[in-house]
Design a protein that fits this description.
The chain is built from 13 helices and 12 strands. It is of the alpha/beta class. It folds into 2 domains: 145 residues, Glycogen Phosphorylase B (Rossmann fold, 3-Layer(aba) Sandwich), CATH 3.40.50.2000; 156 residues, Rossmann fold (3-Layer(aba) Sandwich). The strands form 2 sheets. A 7-stranded parallel β-sheet has the order 3-2-1-4-5-6-7, with helices on both faces. Strand 8, helix 8 and strand 9 form a beta-alpha-beta unit.
Length: 321
């Protein structure tokens, strides 16, 4: 069985990497295809996964249209020479189109509900896997499962956090720290969405810095006052950093969900509504705000909770047992 896994985002590498390793042990041939976007290629290299780069990541409307057709062209020829039997992805439009051209099966995982992408790939999908909490209905090709994507790579059976992260961060083991994540709002599903203003970010950092070390991971440009907190954490160390953080504050849904699976409390600020985030909030694993209103009060509440990590870790076990 020859399977191409087309990934659009660093989180998709994590989603499929354990499956790829298990399938390879069974004698399947697995090939990842990816754009040179963010740290996607770094993750593929770090996990020693077989991959082909489809080219650079383009932004802007014209750039995205050009990128779509160029990556379809590249993927078509790579797939032809690989003799692909099945295409697997998290909502990849190029993979769905190429699967149709080559008359192969296309299987997708979906948890964002971004209709501008779904309309383009759904007609060519054989199966679309979604969580039970996902509200959109894709008809008979939809298969619902109990769980979250992040469990596929952050379940205790697959991931053990490494305490060497404290050395990387330059702090003592067990010392309290906070991870903040700010996004660029350049993705297609970010159109019309919003998160924190610079003044909000400054207030949050001012508060947290009184209680521990603050580390900021940011795609967006930061105000000068916050540059000293910015840090580039290698892609293969990010989950270690999240696992030992006292809690997380940020605009990225993937990282907030990852914190939920790691037992790290998360304050997530994004105007986009996602069913998986809502379900994790119901479990008490994260706190979702669509605007900055109430964020500082929630952070103060978490800072006053002396058993915070232990309580969230207990709730997390309900998902991973």
């Amino acid at each position: 069985m020859n399977v191409i896994i087309d990934v659009n985002h660093p989180g998709h590498v994590h989603l499929f990497k354990n499956f790829a390793k298990m399938a390879t042990k069974e004698g399947w041939k697995i090939l990842f295809t990816a754009k040179d976007k963010e740290v996607t290629l770094d993750l593929l290299k770090a996990d020693q996964l077989n991959y082909k780069c489809l080219g650079k990541h383009y932004t802007g409307k014209i750039g995205k249209i050009y990128s779509l057709f160029y990556h379809v062209f590249r993927l078509f020829w790579i797939s032809l020479f690989f003799r692909t039997d099945v295409f697997l992805s998290h909502g990849s439009v190029p993979a769905s189109w190429v699967s149709f051209l080559l008359r192969r099966k296309y299987i997708s995982f979906e948890d964002t509900g971004n209709m501008e992408q779904i309309r383009l790939y759904k007609p060519f999908a054989h199966t679309i896997f979604t969580t039970e909490s996902f509200k959109q209905n894709y008809g008979e090709i939809q298969v619902r499962y109990r769980g979250f994507h992040e469990i596929a790579y952050l379940h205790p059976n697959y991931f053990k956090p490494n305490k060497d992260i404290f050395n990387f961060l330059g702090i003592n083991e067990g010392e309290k720290y906070f991870i903040l994540r700010f996004v660029s709002w350049g993705a297609s599903h970010d159109v019309g969405q919003k998160g924190l203003k610079d003044s909000d970010k400054e207030e949050i950092v001012q508060l947290l810095s009184q209680h521990g070390n603050v580390f900021i991971s940011s795609e967006a440009a930061l105000p000068d006052s916050l540059l000293k907190y910015k840090i580039k954490i290698p892609a293969d160390k990010m989950h270690d950093a999240l696992a030992f953080a006292h809690f997380f504050v940020g605009e990225g849904a993937t990282m907030a969900s990852e914190c939920a699976m790691l037992g790290t409390p998360a304050v997530y600020i994004n105007s986009m509504i996602a069913e998986t985030i809502d379900e994790q909030q119901e479990y008490g694993l994260l706190y979702h705000f669509t605007t900055s209103n109430g964020v500082l009060n929630k952070i103060k509440e978490l800072l006053d909770n002396t058993n915070l990590k232990r309580r969230v870790a207990t709730k997390r076990r309900r998902l991973t047992l």
